[in-house]
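User: Predict the structure for this protein chain, please.
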Amino acid sequence: MGRKISFLLTYWWCMLLLVLGLIPLVLGNREGGVSETENRTLQAAPQFSIGAWFDGSFMSELETYLSDQMLGRDAILSVSNGILDVFNVTSDRDRIVHADIDEELNSMARAAEEPDDGDLTAETVWNVTIVEDETPEPRSAPTVPPTAAPELTEPPVSAEPTPVPEDPTVRDLSIVRKFGLIRVDGSFTTRFNFGEDAMKRTIASLNAYRAALPEDGSVIFTYIPYSYDANEWLLDTEHFSGWSSNVEPTIQANVDDGVYVFSTVEELRPHMEADEPVYYKVDHHWSGLGAFYMQKRMMTSWGVPSIAYEDFEYTVHENFRGSLSTKVSKEISDRLEVPDALAPTHAYVYRKLNRLVRETKYMEPERATYMAFLGGTHSPFYVAVTGFHTGHSALVVCDSFGNAFVPYIAPYYDKVCLVDLRDSHDFVTGGGGAPLRDYIKEYDIDDVYFIVSRGTGINSDYMQYTVRKYL
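Assistant: Here is the predicted structure, written as structure tokens:
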């Protein structure tokens, strides 16, 4: 009798699991859909082929599809996040700063030692080349303005690369660099430090990508604080008069030729003082306007005239409520401006180097969320064919901050590719299928942009290890 009951329990338990497994196949969105909670595109139903079966990609995609289409998935995530909040011992400030789920997980992954990866030997990580010439040469590409763009509203600017301070200590990586807020009395309040190990590993990562590019290629790096750091200054002018970072000049002084470092903090500060909405108040991202100003700074530094922000047409949502909405007053909202393409632009998602997964919408202006930019993050590899004919292609290695940046560099390239290497994204979980070095060759990449935020920045596992691991 006892064996019969055990058999029946096991039988019906297996049947229940089978039914639960079939539900996503029957009721799931075969196009994938999007997850507002995770700010990403969900896995579409995989297409069966003999090649996909034998190389294992079909089963990998099927497993991801079943997970993404699980019944009640968003509700389960919300409950799980709520439980984590209850037992979270961090302060409200830290929870706001790490509002993005993926970036929070990544920023917590501070490696105490190098991961067990043959590509990350002590020699390759620590061999940082010191540049003797303190003034980087102007980059050579792109040197031609977009041919299909509207008439440029600004004259060409002479090439004036970001100057490197003459302070001899700028090359000394043993000196701890700081980011923080400037008080009205002139004193400095440190928000976080950049140590020697983090600096060396980040520099080595940037140099490795430069070595993988063509001779005239460039690596461009900018680090973007969360909106909380900006809002803390702007909303408390009684105590603070600005913010500052001294890490970028040190990185610039220690990277190889062809690597260019731009300070988001210094570039956006005057615009913030002028009360321009370069950051959101209800979302942890920068705004499209903030991303535009960084694009403009990069282009004008190389003598390339920048397209004006007003050259784009925008879909406007006046009452945007983002990732920080529950942390601020209900009366506060932002203006979300979603740019249209300046030329016919088509976007595609690839996996396993060159296997087309689907064509996707370039922008989704109907969304009143940050996912309007590119429709969120598309993994494993996103390619926008811009409709311009400049003879150059770019790769943006980023977190979700890169999504708002891509539309503003699109007019300068034939193709703009994007990859997000955070742990939860498909490139890392197997969808990449090849190192990024192969992608750089396959898509004729000339320039690589690192557009990273606090959660994936200099102090993170992302910049110190992950980007090199997948190169």
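Residues 36-41, 81-161 have pLDDT under 50 and may be disordered.
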